[in-house]
């Protein structure tokens, strides 16, 4: 697991102490959502690098996607049996960190079972990175979450020095939910949502 670092949170020519406190307040709200996710779905959480990373899984689920100029509902595919989610927060202010390269690997008995790149997913409660997948069973699995260095630019000569190193976290003996959560009333319908297969 990547060693912890404390990202800077000091007044600068870009952010006053009051503005940094507003950022912390935003992070407190995201932290409460992460905590609720942990209590509801049993999220595994770790602090590594300058990030807080939470991994959770639930039944595979559908989602809206833009096709042309309209949103269409893409139900979880019949073969999908789990939805993998990773929430990533800044360890300094607690806010969600967008625009990252996030992947998850599942292993059992030292052998790889699944590797999935997780795109950003909007959620009404907790923005996260995630994907539907097909796994052989509920596990347990050893889970590795990898977050690449952020490729976006950062404001602030004092506080912008963050997210420059890759971060890995490991969770051992994780059980997965198996099943699908259908949404029959969502319209209009499109093709099934993508599924990462083991």
UniProtKB/TrEMBL annotation:
This is Fe2+ transport protein. Keywords: Signal. It comes from Micromonospora pattaloongensis. Belongs to the UPF0423 family. Residues 1-23, 175-198 are annotated as: Disordered. The keyword Signal applies. InterPro entries: Metal-bd_Tp34-typ, Tp34-type_sf. Coiled coil: none annotated.
């Amino acid at each position: 697991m990547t060693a912890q670092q404390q990202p800077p949170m000091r007044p600068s020519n870009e952010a006053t102490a009051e503005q940094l406190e507003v950022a912390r307040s935003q992070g407190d709200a995201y932290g409460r959502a992460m905590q609720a996710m942990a209590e509801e779905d049993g999220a595994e959480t770790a602090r590594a690098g300058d990030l807080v990373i939470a991994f959770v899984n639930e039944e595979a689920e559908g989602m809206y996607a833009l096709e042309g100029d309209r949103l269409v509902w893409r139900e979880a595919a019949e073969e999908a049996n789990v939805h993998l989610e990773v929430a990533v927060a800044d360890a300094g202010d607690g806010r969600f960190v967008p625009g990252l390269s996030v992947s998850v690997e599942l292993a059992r008995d030292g052998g790889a079972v699944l590797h999935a790149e997780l795109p950003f997913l909007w959620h009404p409660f907790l923005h996260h990175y995630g994907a539907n997948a097909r796994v052989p069973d509920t596990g347990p699995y050893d889970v590795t979450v990898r977050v690449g260095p952020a490729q976006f630019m950062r404001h602030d000569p004092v506080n912008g020095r963050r997210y420059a190193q890759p971060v890995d976290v490991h969770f051992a003996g994780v059980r997965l939910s198996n099943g699908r959560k259908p949404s029959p009333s969502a319209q209009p319908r499109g093709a099934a949502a993508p599924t990462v297969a083991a």
